[in-house]
Design a protein that fits this description.
Layout: H1 24-47, H2 52-86, H3 91-120, H4 123-130, H5 139-146, H6 155-167, H7 169-182, E1 184-187, E2 190-193, H8 194-200, H9 206-222, H10 224-244, H11 253-260, H12 265-277, H13 279-292, H14 320-334, H15 336-347, E3 351-352, E4 364-368, E5 373-377, H16 384-402, H17 415-436, H18 440-477, H19 482-497, H20 508-511, H21 525-538, H22 541-544, H23 548-557, H24 564-572, H25 579-603
Parallel strand pairs: 3-5
Antiparallel strand pairs: 1-2, 4-5
Helix pairs in contact: 1-2, 1-3, 2-3, 2-4, 3-5, 3-6, 7-10, 8-9, 10-18, 12-25, 13-18, 13-25, 14-15, 14-17, 16-17, 17-18, 17-21, 18-19, 18-21, 18-25, 21-25
Bound molecules: zinc ion.
Length: about 600
């Protein structure tokens, strides 16, 4: 069996959302958004002169409008990306995507006066607004935002910043994507795109991995000053904005990120500190992988090298339908409804995995909030890591599904908690794979995935975090040229990888897209957080027995309406500001790597 003969690979069906780009329902939704923005603008004019019941009514209505417009805009935006993911060259999809970006900025600006008002409003007024069922879903959002009121600017300044960001700050991210899409790499005498070159670093042949990695280095090297200009612009903007917000109290860049991720600084410190104290776990994983590949040490081009299955009796191609069964069964052992949900996603055409021309790389989970339906996008290749990706994205989808009856605002969760749900789902499937394995080779195949995951989360992610801190601080001193970015990256890798690998990845700052994302800083430690946080929750499975699936659903339900500290205290009575919580998770990884090392000893 191979991809070509596997007729079980699904494509999604979204025609009941909108038939196509000319569907009158889509035009109607776009008009509704415009009408709502106009109405909000009108209401804003009378806001300052209103009082008593009138004022409460206006604020509640504004919240209802914001919610309705946001749901429609999000739905149209997901529709655009559902088409462009399958066919990146679809112009109509790009147009709709650009349109929804503009509309989203319009909604934000139209709601801004009400947002500012609610941020500064006295507690009793707030209480009146949020005791109305129509507005109750915004309670946590405002409670949380108000914690940073000391850095709030005037309404005019806030509107100006968000209006200027559309073609200012966020243009740099668009430029990065343009660059990433157009860069060509020379690999083994052939010219290929970055995504294809990256895929070659995931293959068995070590010579081809090195060729592909060199090709990627040369490609980024040829445009390193452009990539450096992007990082400087994005971080320069952020530093400048922080300056503006520092009139009363200085803004710390890590506080900005932690607030967004709904965690406290002490939690971040405990997370990073515990990981650093257990650095040997990740290093042992890297050394084990090198041993498995017959190398003295891994090079930067080997970090994603697959299990050397050519030497083993490991299972080859997995069909999509077999894999969805495997994932659904693994989910069902925790919660039958979760297993049933995975099958529903497949049966209803909510997954798109069939390889197609002009397809985007990567995998994601999206949602159509108008109808409360999730979607999963990925490209099937039948490998074991593909099965894990499927589990990961279905974990996100289950998270969305559990929350579907909450108010829209309460379904928006931070990346830290998003990655918790996906990695938790992965762990369910990894455990099932390990249990089903009948030979040591098969066991090593899943243990290999554990090792790769441990090295990525416990070493690579902290190195990215380290680099971004250095970048922000260097940018505050002035422009940071490409040569300095390379030096900072090497220093960051030296701190975390030390001598566990044979060389570092000097242009990682350009090649890894996360550093250039304009909408969010420090999109790195949330992955480490999700990894260890989900293992910490998973470890409580035995203690809660039959009740555990309900507890887990309860955790997911609350991810959009409390901080991570509150969440874990409420459901597990533990304090994630303390290293003890994280150390417990790290002990689990330690055991996994021990098992990996034992299997390696047995087989090699
Ligand atoms: Zn994810």
């Amino acid at each position: 069996m191979s991809i070509d003969s596997d007729n079980t690979i699904p494509v999604w069906n979204n025609t009941h959302i909108y038939k196509d780009f000319n569907d009158p329902a889509l035009q109607q939704d776009i008009e509704t958004i415009s009408t709502i923005c106009d109405a909000l603008n009108d209401k804003a004019l009378v806001l300052e002169d209103s009082a008593g019941e009138d004022l409460v009514r206006i604020l509640v209505e504004a919240i209802k409008f914001d919610e309705k417009a946001s749901i429609l805009c999000w739905t149209a935006s997901t529709f655009a990306s559902s088409i462009s993911s399958v066919d990146a060259k679809n112009d109509e999809a790009s147009r709709l995507d650009a349109k929804t970006n503009t509309l989203s900025a319009r909604i934000e600006q139209a709601f801004k006066p009400f947002k500012q008002y609610l941020l500064k409003a006295p507690d009793d007024l707030l209480e009146k607004v949020f005791s109305d069922d129509d507005a109750a879903g915004y309670r946590f959002y405002f409670q949380h935002q108000r914690k940073r009121n000391v850095h709030l600017l005037s309404t005019e300044e806030e509107v100006a910043i968000s209006a200027l960001s559309v073609d200012g700050l966020h243009s740099w991210w668009r430029l990065y994507n343009e660059l990433r899409g157009s860069l060509r790499c020379q690999v083994g005498g052939e010219e290929i795109g970055l995504a294809s070159a990256f895929n070659l670093t995931l293959q068995q042949d070590s010579v081809k991995r090195k060729q592909a990695w060199d090709g990627i280095q040369n490609a980024w090297g040829s445009r390193e000053e452009t990539a450096a200009a992007i990082l400087n612009a994005v971080n320069g903007w952020r530093n400048e904005e922080s300056q503006l917000r520092s009139k009363i109290e200085p803004v710390h860049y890590l506080d900005v990120s932690c607030h967004r991720q709904k965690i406290e600084r002490s939690t971040l410190d405990a997370l990073i500190g515990s990981t650093e104290a257990h650095l040997d776990i990740g290093h042992r994983a890297l050394k084990g992988m090198a041993k498995g590949l017959g190398l003295d040490k891994l090079g930067p081009q080997d970090l994603h090298a697959p299990f050397p299955s050519a030497k083993s009796d490991a299972i080859g191609y997995r069909t999509f339908s077999d894999s969805i069964d495997l994932v659904a069964n693994a989910f069902a052992r925790l919660d039958p409804a979760m297993g049933e949900f995975a099958r529903t996603m497949y049966k209803k055409g909510w997954i798109d995995a069939k390889p197609s021309d002009n397809r985007t790389t990567g995998a994601y989970c999206a949602k159509f909030p108008k109808v409360g339906e999730p979607r999963v996008f990925m490209t099937w290749d039948g490998s074991i890591s593909n099965v894990i990706t499927l589990a990961h994205e279905l974990g996100h989808a289950w998270h969305n599904w559990v929350m579907k009856d909450l108010s829209f605002c309460e379904t928006i969760y931070p990346s830290t908690l998003a990655e918790t749900a996906s990695i938790f789902a992965e762990t369910l499937v990894r455990d099932a794979l390990a249990e089903h394995a009948s030979t040591d080779h098969e066991r090593l195949e899943t243990a290999w995935l554990d090792a790769e995951r441990a090295s990525a989360f416990l070493v690579n992610i902290p190195a990215r975090f380290e680099f971004e801190k250095k970048l922000v601080e260097a940018r505050a001193e002035g422009y940071v040229p490409a040569s300095q970015l390379t030096a900072l990256m090497n220093e960051s890798w030296a701190k975390w990888y030390q001598d566990s690998i044979s060389g570092y990845d000097p242009l990682f700052w350009a090649a890894k897209l996360h550093f250039s994302i304009s909408g969010m800083s420090f999109y790195n430690y949330p992955y480490l957080f999700g990894y260890l946080f989900s293992l910490g929750i998973y470890a409580k499975k035995e203690r809660y027995g039959d009740q555990f699936s309900d507890v887990y659903r309860g955790v997911l339900m609350d991810t959009g309406r409390m901080t991570a500290e509150e969440l874990i205290e409420k459901h597990f009575d533990q304090d994630i500001r303390q290293p003890a919580f994280w150390n417990e998770s790290l002990d689990i990884v330690d055991q996994q790597i021990l098992r990996f090392e034992e299997l390696l000893d047995k087989i090699t």
